[in-house]
Amino acid sequence: MCTGGCAKCLGITLIPLAVLCTLANILLFFPGGTVAEENAHITDEVWYFGGILGSGVLMIFPALVFLGLQNNDCCGCCGNRSCGSRFAMFSSIIFAAIGVLGAGYCFILSSVALHKGPKCQNRGNWTYPFHDGNYLSDHALWDQCESPENIVPWHLTLFSLLLVMSGVQAVLCAIQAVNGLFGTICGDCKCCGCCGGDGPV
Fold first, then answer.
1. Cα separation of 45 and 191, whole Å?
2. Strands (E), 88-186
3. How far apart are CA 87 and CA 185, in angstroms?
């Protein structure tokens, strides 16, 4: 597959992942699927918008750039038939780096949130009753969260999804960084015959 075609496939994959990460982050504002009485009752890591900003907004820009690479004008750079394609592929490396940073931000926040556990009501106080991720292996500890109902599985499921999806996003952006490097050095085979040329540029 040509570098432009590969980039388009990666972009197509990144967009639904960005949308899902945004939705997961939004759902975390409703602990246990209910409306929080106070903002202070929502887990702190939710307010850092890892899924909305990191794996959402920041991921849309690389995805759109990757999608447009296959339609890049190979001949559009000062008459040099290879310059346009190579510059576009080089720019995709920069956007891929932005994508890795955004996904990494979400990944780290999700890891911290999973290790820390949800904020919930315990003995009348809103606090973090779990320590060092002990609730992950001992479901009996979940009963320490008196409310909201089902807050632990809600927290665990959504942050786990964010962790996995942001990890996938980081891998895809890393692949595009390598793909973009090849495209910068070797050109895109879609440019074969461009501007009257006979070979790849």
1. 46
2. 120-122, 125-127
3. 10
Q: Rounded to an integer, what distance in angstroms lies between the CA atom of residue 100 and that of residue 136? A: 27
Q: How far, in whole angstroms, is CA 71 from its chain's centroid?
A: 24
Mean pLDDT to the nearest integer, 16-41: 96
Statement: residue 72 has pLDDT above 90: no
Residues 152, 11: Cα–Cα separation, whole Å = 33
* SS3 state at 147: strand
Which residues does residue 120 pair with via DSSP β-bridges, in sequence order? 127
Could you tell me the two tokens for 28? 């975390």
**DSSP conformation class of 81:** T
**Total residues found in the chain within this entry:** 201
**Smallest Cα–Cα separation from 89: which of 5, 192, 181, 175?**
181
The whole model's pTM is what? 0.86
How far is residue 56's CA from residue 51's CA, in Å, rounded to a whole number?
6
Give pLDDT tens digits for 96-144. Answer: 999 999 999 999 999 999 999 999 999 999 999 998 899 999 999 999 9
Check if the beta carbon of residue 118 is closer than 8 Å to that of residue 127.
no
- 3-state secondary structure at position 17: helix
What pLDDT is attached to residue 183? 86
